[in-house]
């Protein structure tokens, strides 16, 4: 790359970031009904995969472009994404599935906010905290679909199954408020448009075409994702000033449907994904809600509202029996102020005060409800063993006036049953075989077998084999519940060997029931539960069997990669080089990719004896260094070892990740140009833009500091009680957060924003205290040599640990930072994180901090021991009586130069500042003495002399040093002070 081009890139990026940091706008969303353009086939496919494999991954991919300041000023996307996370966690808990979630953002770049995290009750807070970080990140100048999808491709590739038996179950939940677009600015380039910049309006139009072409061409980026088995679900926010047509390309990418924007990709079956259009926050909630029970679509109803009291005509009814494991309801009215009422089968009503989250219980059925917006309510129902569970339930909205209102509901009734192939581990499927015995049964979410004939309602099972080319071989259709477990037979005559899918669909309708008035209400037809189980149809008996997939891993730069296909004898196996490799997807500019093997004919095939295993070695060649994924199939020939039958071809899918190496020359040129050949102003602008955006959001915050210790793997408070929150904790708000800020003082602990050494990326926050090392909560992230805890800019609902590396190894201080609107559930989530993570984080922090101490310790004196304090004679300090310092009053330093002993040497990072004779001001340890023997201030956690801070456990915002009277306490938090007391 030329130096002029490198300079243009750096200069343009500088101006871009600065402009993004300084531009903001405010507008309100338009109100409209939701518009679902697909029937949820993509989400259903993901759910069927998860039901079969028991695990899957969901990537939350959220727009960060600056247009969100106008289209979504209240951050509705954050509310909706948080709601989806919580609903997915409930789905995973009720079905027993393992779901991993990651959070990323995109605009004119792509970056991760949270890596893959298992979604469970203990981690929901971690995921939602990561989502919250995007609340104030709306400054990007582009809406770059290509960077979003390519970044998602790389993130999802990190969770590709290791065994290669199946692609895995992966879905992108992709939100944006606009169409593919760019902001013209000089010198900006994109990886999919080599040699093109964004200098002018004409360049902008050309860049849009280049991005769309790269995504939608045959084998392009869209096909790379689809051929990797990734389901893409896109949600577009059509606020005021945008129209549905603005999302034509987004719809084509996600669904594979041809729109006015044109076709996108060649792979359109099975359904690549879904698209939903939303026009306000409630639309967004319903759109995200469609993803919350994959494979089990919700029941949707639209009706009106009642006036003053519950009425029949406005009820959203549903019937439950013991085939149902849990119920999740999202309902909304078209105006605020209506009261939702849940009516139990016995007629008892549970009224939910608008805007006030709560819990209730009806006949043993547990209810939890909250209000995501002022017009919507979310309700969770659990405990199907309760006697009142079975029967007719209804949700109704009640208005206090006769003003007309419309209401809608999305009711997720999660079936507790799924079909299972009993012969999964004992039956081998061979091409050409007939009368293959097949048997099926039904399991509940706990994995226990359920006799389907005892179900109170109706049930039926349909099963079939679906081959790789889409051919369906039926096994049984609409088998009634009394015959589901009866033996059946499968015929594979004329079916080619290779990967296939066993599809099992269980349809259940709950039993009819009488409502409180005695009227019989028909049972509710639940969404069918489909399980797509990957299977392999082996060649006929006498032929060798082979693995189902080939994964070449990653090729960095141009070159080759090898992989082996397992072969089980008896037989002979080779790669059919006469058949062209079928590439389904390839990166831009990849050149003539090829798959080869030394075993390329029957004469030099891999021969394996009966019941023995061998390997067919394969080589993938990439002539060009590119970024992307290459997917396709190769034809492998199999034949009996004795040559008694004709060879058979088997199509085997393969995948390989292609990655450009770091262009060190490009990097060096850019660095030299920036630092030597050109003015430093653009580089300074980069840092200025990063500094400008590195601010802690100005939202209400509560902070509390806890002295804790580890008792084995248990976390206890300093009084020996298990770590928990008391009624007097989190009462006061942290002052100074009426707007964004770069610094917060928490009584001896300081939070500061940092931008780091790189001019790129986003800033972060460090938490520090004198004499202490720190690490962020669950992640254990730290920064600097001390080290200090490293937190995201959105510090709300996070925690960190501070530890004195010279003190006891099992003691520490946990600092919890809680949003002003956090409820008890959010606090309890953080408490669980502390209890689970601190036994891992604290030892790692101590090891890291002690290593720093060792690095800074003075060299041993001749003839002396390796005394880290530098005292003579092997004593810890050289002071009389083996005192740790030799200073007056037993202070730990007392020596000049800030060294721990008073001897020469490098400065201890946990001790006093250089040139000071004062002891370390550790705010968390026991009180120290000044050289004159008097007490010195000791921060908010230890005792101080009169006139200092209050004793441990006191208000961290209390009086300062010097005996000044305490300042008035901060104002009480909104909504009545302590949120954890009635």
Helix content: 10-25%
> Between the first and last Cα atoms, what is the distance in angstroms?
66 Å
The gyration radius over C-alpha positions equals: 32 Å
Shape descriptor: globular
Q: List unreliable stretches of 5+ residues.
A: 1-38, 860-982
Mean pLDDT: 81
Instruction: Give the strand order of the largest sheet, numbering strands 1, 2, ... along the chain.
Output: 1-7-6-5-2-3-4
Strand content: 25-35%
Number of structural domains: 5
Largest sheet: 7 strands, mixed
Count of individual beta strands:
49
Determine the number of helices (DSSP H or I, runs of at least 4 residues). Answer: 13
SSE class: alpha+beta
Biased composition (Gly residues): 870-905
Region (Disordered): 846-982
Pfam family, one: VWA_2
Organism: Gordonia desulfuricans
Task: Describe what this molecule looks like in 3D.
The model is unreliable at 1-38 and 860-982 (pLDDT under 50). 18% of the residues lie in helices and 30% in strands. It folds into 5 domains: 32-171 and 178-289, Rossmann fold (3-Layer(aba) Sandwich), CATH 3.40.50; 299-415, Sandwich (Jelly Rolls), CATH 2.60.120; 417-537, Immunoglobulin-like (Sandwich), CATH 2.60.40; 545-661, Immunoglobulin-like; 694-859 and 896-982, no CATH class. It has 13 helices and 49 strands. Residues 870-905 have a biased composition (Gly residues).
């Amino acid at each position: 790359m030329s130096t002029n081009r490198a300079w243009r890139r750096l200069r343009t990026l500088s101006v871009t970031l600065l402009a993004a940091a300084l531009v903001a706008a405010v507008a309100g969303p338009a109100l409209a009904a939701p518009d679902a353009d697909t029937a949820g086939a993509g989400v259903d496919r993901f759910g069927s995969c998860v039901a079969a494999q028991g695990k899957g991954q969901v990537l939350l991919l959220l727009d960060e472009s600056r247009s969100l300041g106008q289209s979504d000023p209240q951050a509705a996307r954050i509310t909706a994404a948080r709601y989806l996370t919580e609903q997915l966690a409930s789905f995973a808990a009720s079905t027993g599935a393992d779901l991993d979630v990651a959070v990323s953002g995109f605009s004119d770049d792509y970056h991760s906010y949270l890596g893959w995290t298992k979604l469970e009750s203990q981690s929901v807070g971690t995921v939602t905290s990561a989502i919250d970080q995007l609340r104030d990140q709306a400054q990007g100048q582009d809406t770059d679909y290509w960077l979003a999808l390519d970044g998602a491709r790389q993130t999802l590739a990190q969770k590709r199954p290791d065994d290669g038996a199946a692609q895995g179950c992966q879905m992108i939940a992709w939100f944006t408020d606009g169409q593919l677009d760019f902001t013209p600015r000089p010198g900006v380039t994109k990886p999919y448009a080599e040699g093109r910049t964004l200098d002018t309006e004409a360049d902008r139009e050309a860049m849009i075409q280049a991005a769309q072409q790269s995504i939608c061409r045959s084998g392009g980026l869209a096909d790379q994702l689809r051929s990797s088995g990734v389901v893409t679900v896109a949600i577009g926010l059509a606020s005021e000033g945008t129209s549905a047509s603005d999302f034509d390309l987004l719809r084509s990418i996600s669904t594979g449907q041809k729109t006015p924007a044109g076709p996108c990709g060649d792979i359109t079956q099975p359904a690549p994904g879904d698209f939903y259009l939303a026009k306000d926050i409630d639309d967004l909630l319903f759109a995200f809600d469609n993803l919350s029970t994959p494979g089990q679509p919700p029941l949707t109803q639209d009706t009106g509202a009642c006036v003053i009291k519950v009425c029949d005509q406005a009820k959203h009814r549903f019937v439950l029996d013991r085939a149902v494991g849990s119920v999740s309801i999202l309902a909304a009215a078209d105006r605020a102020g209506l009261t939702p009422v849940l009516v139990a089968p016995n007629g008892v009503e549970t009224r939910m005060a608008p805007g006030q989250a709560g819990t209730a219980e009806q006949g043993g059925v547990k209810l939890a409800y909250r209000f995501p917006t002022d017009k919507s309510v979310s309700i969770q129902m659990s405990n199907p063993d309760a006697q009142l569970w079975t029967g007719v339930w209804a949700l109704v909205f009640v208005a206090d006036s006769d003003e007309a209102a419309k209401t809608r509901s999305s009711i997720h009734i999660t079936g507790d049953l799924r079909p299972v192939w009993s012969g999964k581990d004992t039956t081998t499927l061979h091409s050409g075989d007939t009368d293959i015995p097949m048997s099926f049964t039904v399991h509940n979410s706990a994995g226990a077998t359920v006799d389907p004939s005892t179900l109170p309602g109706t049930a039926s099972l349909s099963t079939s084999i679906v081959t790789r080319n889409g051919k369906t071989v039926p096994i049984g259709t609409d088998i009634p519940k009394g015959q589901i477990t009866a033996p059946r037979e499968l015929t594979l005559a004329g079916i080619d060997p290779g990967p296939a899918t066993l599809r099992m669909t269980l349809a259940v309708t709950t039993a009819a029931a009488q409502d409180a008035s005695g009227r019989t209400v028909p049972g509710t037809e639940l969404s069918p539960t489909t399980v797509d189980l990957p299977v392999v149809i082996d060649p006929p008996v006498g032929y060798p069997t082979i693995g189902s997939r080939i994964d070449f891993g990653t090729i960095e730069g141009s070159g080759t990669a090898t992989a082996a296909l397992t072969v089980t004898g008896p037989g002979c196996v080779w790669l059919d080089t006469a058949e062209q490799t079928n590439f389904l997807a390839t990166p831009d500019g990849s050149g003539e990719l090829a798959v080869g093997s030394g075993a390329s004919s029957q004469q030099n095939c891999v021969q394996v004896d009966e019941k023995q295993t061998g390997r067919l070695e394969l080589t993938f060649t990439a002539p060009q260094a590119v970024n992307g994924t290459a997917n396709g199939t190769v034809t492998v020939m199999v034949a009996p070892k004795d040559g008694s039958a004709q060879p058979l071809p088997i199509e085997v899918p393969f995948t390989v990740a292609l990655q450009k190496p770091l262009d060190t020359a490009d990097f060096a040129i850019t660095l030299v140009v920036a630092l030597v050949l050109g003015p430093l102003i653009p580089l300074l602008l980069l840092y200025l833009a990063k500094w400008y955006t590195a601010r802690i959001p100005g939202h209400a915050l509560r902070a509390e500091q806890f002295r804790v210790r580890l008792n084995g793997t248990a976390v206890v408070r300093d009084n020996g009680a298990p770590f928990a929150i008391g009624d007097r904790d989190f009462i006061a708000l942290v002052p100074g957060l009426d707007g964004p800020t770069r610094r917060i003082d928490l009584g001896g602990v300081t939070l500061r924003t940092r931008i780091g050494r790189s001019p790129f990326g986003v800033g972060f926050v460090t938490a520090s205290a004198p004499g202490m090392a720190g690490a962020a909560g669950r992640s254990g992230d730290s920064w600097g040599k001390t080290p200090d805890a490293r937190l995201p800019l959105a510090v709300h609902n996070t925690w960190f640990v501070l530890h004195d590396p010279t003190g006891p190894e099992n003691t520490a201080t946990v600092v919890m930072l809680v949003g002003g609107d956090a409820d008890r559930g959010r606090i309890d989530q953080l408490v669980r994180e502390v209890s689970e993570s601190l036994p891992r984080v604290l030892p790692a922090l101590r090891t890291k901090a002690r290593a720093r101490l060792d690095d800074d310790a003075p060299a041993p004196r001749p003839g002396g021991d390796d005394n880290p304090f530098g005292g003579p004679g092997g004593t810890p300090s050289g002071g009389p009586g083996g005192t740790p310092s030799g200073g007056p009053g037993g202070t730990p330093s007392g020596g000049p130069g800030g060294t721990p002993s008073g001897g020469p040497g490098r400065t201890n990072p946990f001790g006093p500042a250089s040139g000071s004779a004062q002891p370390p001001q550790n705010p968390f340890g026991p009180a120290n003495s000044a050289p004159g023997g008097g007490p010195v201030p000791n921060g908010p956690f230890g005792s101080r002399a009169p006139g200092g801070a209050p004793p441990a456990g006191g208000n961290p915002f209390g009086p300062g040093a010097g005996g000044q009277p305490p300042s008035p306490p901060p104002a009480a938090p909104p909504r009545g002070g302590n949120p954890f007391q009635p």
